[in-house]
Amino acid sequence: MNLRELSKQLKLSQTTVSRALNGYPEVNEATRKRVTEAAEKYQYRPNVRAQTLATGKSKSVGHVIPLSKQSELVNMVFSDFMAGAGLVYAEHGYTMTLSIVRDDDELDAYSAFAERGAVDGVIVQGPTCDDPRIARLLKLNIPFVVHGRASGIETPYAWLDVNNHRAIKAATQSLIDLGHRRIGLINGREQMDFALRRRAGYEAALADAGIPADPALTRSGDMSEPNGYTAAWEVLAYQNPPTAFVASSIVIALGVKRAIEEHGLTIGKDVSVICFDDDISYLPNAGRTPQFTAMRSSVHAAGARCATLLLERIKTPGAPPSSELWEAEFVQGASTGPGPHA
Q1: CB count in 10 Å sphere of residue 101
Q2: Distance, CA of 280 to CA of 301 (rounded, Å)
Q3: What is the pTM of this model?
Q4: What is the pLDDT of residue 181?
Q5: Which band of pLDDT confidence, cut at 50, 70 and 90, is reported for residue 53?
Q6: How confident is the model at residue 70 (pLDDT cuts 50, 70, 90)?
């Protein structure tokens, strides 16, 4: 079934059918409904190339991955985000364009998207402080949404973020309430904005409780199990080791758990662990008693919501940029217990 045949079935012009399917406002609702129902009945699928020429829209969303971050493609958090976003794209007839480039060419990749009209919008992930991608995209006037925020940028832009500061402050406070005073932090890379906010939340909770922050108890690095293991092993080897850890992800927490057990200690009894949990599909922290006490916020849901916000911006590019700040949910698990000062 092509456009000409569908138009013949409906006894309407090809222009009217095309405009009805593409949401043009001059087509009345009764005609639009009749056309969409017929398209579904006859399993009509528009020719994407012809549609692009007719509407000036590529029906694609861009994601740029620098070579140094190729591993993101197999990172569970990134994959879950993309899965959530991809479902929304598919529901609205959009495809995903992934561009892997050299690090030095990342900004130019966004310019190339705009110049070629290759995508209708972009999602930016992993923002840093004063992230230069945001300024470039604002200059290019291409619709975009940032997953996270970039401290230091005052110009309004569209973003969705979880309240990392409050989540980790609450996590640290929960350990303090259990009687822990020597509390370690195993964080992500601290050039990333989310990691800086998480460290600030950790330090704020200690300050509120009158506990001096000990730099020897904190580490930052890849959000990986080996990094969590190595960092926790080193800290646990100190003469005065921590009795609890805050882990910046459930993947890091798995490494921390391994280090605790290799030191002959029991998690939740000898050493407590609380983590940030992205509610990863392939690594559920579930069951009657979850493995880890955690602050939970679904990255899959964040991907879907970022995609929805971006498609709204593509549809109404002149609208003011929207922002959403999500709160993480506290989940009681088996990894925390009373500390020495309970």
Answers
A1: 16
A2: 10
A3: 0.84
A4: 98
A5: very low
A6: low
Amino acid at site 161 = D
pLDDT band, residue 41 (cuts 50/70/90): confident
pLDDT for res 76: 86
Rounded to 5°, angle at Cα 330 from 266 and 300: 105
Structure tokens at 332: 């009681």
Residues 305-324 have pLDDT tens digits of 999 999 999 999 889 999 99
- Cβ-contact 41, 34 below 8 angstroms: no
CA dihedral (47, 48, 51, 55) in degrees, to 10, reads 170
- Which pair of structure tokens corresponds to residue 274? 């609380």
Closest CA to 61 of 100, 94, 23: 94
Interatomic CA distance for residues 176 and 182, integer angstroms:
9
Burial of 174 (0-12, 13-18, 19+ CB in 10 A): buried
b/e per residue 183-218 (b: at least 16 CB within 10 A): bbbbbbbbebbbbbbbbebbbbbbeeeebebbeebb
Higher pLDDT, 210 or 19: 210
* Separation between Cα atoms, residue 128 and residue 278, nearest integer Å: 19
Is residue 260 within 8 Å of residue 268, measured between CB atoms? no
Q: What does 129-191 look like in DSSP terms, one character per residue?
A: TT-HHHHHHHHHT--EEEES--TT--S---EEEE-HHHHHHHHHHHHHHTT--SEEEEE--TT
Number of H helices, E strands in the chain: 12, 12
- 157, exposed or middle or buried, with CB in 10 Å at 0-12, 13-18, 19+? buried
